[in-house]
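Lab channel / #folding
Pinned by the channel admin:
"Please post every new chain as: sequence first, then the structure tokens as a reply. Keep commentary short and put observations after the output so the thread stays searchable."

First post following the new format, from NK:
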Amino acid sequence: MQSTAMPTAEQHGFRPHSDGPVVPVQTRSERFRSTDVAAFEAVTGREHEWKYSPVAAFADLTSGELDGSRAEVESTPVDGVTHSWIPRDDARIGRAGIPEERASANAWSGFEKALLIEVAGEEAKTATVTRSGLGATPRAAHTVIEAAPNSRGLVVLRGTGDARLSENVEIVVGEGANLTVVSLQEWSDESVHLASHFARIGRDAKLKHIVVSLGGKVVRVNPSTHLAEQGGDIEALGMYFSDAGQHLEQQVFVHHDAPHTRSRVTYKGALQGEGARSVWIGDVLIGNAATGTDSYEQNRNLVLTDGTRADSVPNLEIETGDIEGAGHASATGRFDDEQLFYLQARGIPEDEARRLVVRGFLTEIVQQIGDAELEERLTLALEAELQGS
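Reply from TO:
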């Protein structure tokens, strides 16, 4: 017989949680934000933003004191691109976004001066800024990239050598500007790099943001884009190759917050070797004012050997029904046997056939950079990675 008794406090859902009141975040844009590291709890690995990450490997970057002194950078002079160092209280800092997690806040609390990269002029141009040999000391850094209205350019942020680095990168794209930013991780095998990228895109402006992660023991690059004004466009691309014992992670967030904005997110990765790990989380939020939105995100992973793991989590929130379209996709799989058979049937050895398939899978991203010299260099770097597959 069905009971009509009132539920007691011991029944599920009526007993207080052992960790205190738990209120879930209802939408991606409501996450807590602060530039003060003390405002965040210590990282345990159980938090939603850390549950896929090897937090013990970089506890010094989330909780320890960081060296925020100015790190030397190498750059070649380019007409229309300037760089300078600005103080923490400069008004140009904080316009694109502020931290949502402790590592980012620790870097924000610890840096002394920010590197400002300014792009001006309507002609196409490429500027590369390289950091190398930062050493084993835990460091903090902050970079601001600003594209003037109607400007056009490509900025490459390259990291090489040893590093234990937590940083924030702000990208402000002015009205009508067309900017490409490539974040290139070619760190040494034992390096650790945690980065949060914040982008604000102006009216009728376009940003192409490309993350290429090849080197480093733990690399975590999380780009967030705010399509704040009508006609804004973001193309977020990523390519990564995770070897044995390597952890490569990307948490991508696109916030459509204005009418008639567009986003395309495409990340592709390959994994080989025992303990190779990749993490991709894609969040797209279409706000209630973002009518006419056109959005699509996808992640593809190619598993080359046993002992690897690829986590892929696409999320889509829609707060208005008046949109052009929105969708997401995710897939993780092994080689296509038919492709291998086709190549081998034409006299290509199996090892070479495997490399051709992987190269074709990943170079789709590289070919969209828009700089022939950089594309060629990355293709050669990818070929070097594949020699061990």
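NK: The two ends are 64 Å apart (CA to CA).
TO: also worth noting, The first strand starts at residue 74 and ends at 75.
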